[in-house]
Design goal:
184 residues, 3 helices, 5-stranded antiparallel β-sheet, dTDP-4-dehydrorhamnose 3,5-epimerase, Jelly Rolls, mainly beta, 6-stranded antiparallel β-sheet, EC 5.1.3.13, RmlC-like, 13 strands, RmlC-like_jellyroll
């Protein structure tokens, strides 16, 4: 596995190696030993899988408050998505900054999003699936969100506001300036 870091501390792009021949390929998508050497002492407790049918579906930007904050290792086993992580750690020099990467079945890459970040994605084609392992169980009372199209974030989404397909919940999320200090 190859691990690449970003200018925003904590985020890691994971690129599993694929071993192939005329029949196809094989890949280890997770190795605890090498992942822990890169990301730290991480333990996954839940594995989630989502499906989005239409192109232009936006999910997020979601996070959970402490003590139920979640780290997420995200991959796209079907389709292509623009995957986004926003730094919500108020003590971080990159507070409010984001990373956006294309995850796809073709590239096999994964994004490690530690606790302290909001996470979301936009489908770049129809019939996309995301699979992600998380470090804490889902907790409705700790579930929060950040508005996907907040101008303060400067995210270059591949869909216009008019064409984005969102849940009612995601249309009502707070702006960054309204969040307050959700992570130290």
């Amino acid at each position: 596995m190859d691990y690449s870091r970003f200018d925003i501390a904590g985020l890691v792009l994971v690129t599993p190696k694929r071993h192939g021949d005329e029949r196809g390929w094989f890949s280890e998508v997770f190795r605890e030993d090498s992942f822990r050497r890169t990301a730290g002492d991480v333990q996954f407790v839940q594995h989630n899988h989502s499906y989005s049918k239409p192109k232009g579906t936006v999910r997020g930007l979601h996070f959970q408050l402490a003590p139920k904050a979640q780290g997420k290792l995200v991959r796209c086993p079907r389709g292509r998505v623009l995957d986004v992580a926003v730094d919500l750690r108020t003590s971080s020099p990159t507070y409010g900054s984001h990373v956006a990467v294309e995850l796809s079945a073709a590239n096999g890459q994964q994004l490690w999003v530690p606790a302290g970040f909001a996470h979301g994605f936009c489908t770049l084609e129809e019939d996309c699936e995301l699979a992600y392992m998380v470090t804490n169980y889902y907790s409705p009372e700790h579930d929060r969100g950040l508005r996907w199209n907040d101008p303060a974030l400067g995210i270059d989404w591949p869909v216009s506001e008019a064409d984005a397909i969102l849940s009612p919940k995601d249309t009502r999320q707070l702006l960054l300036a309204e969040l307050g200090a959700v992570f130290a």
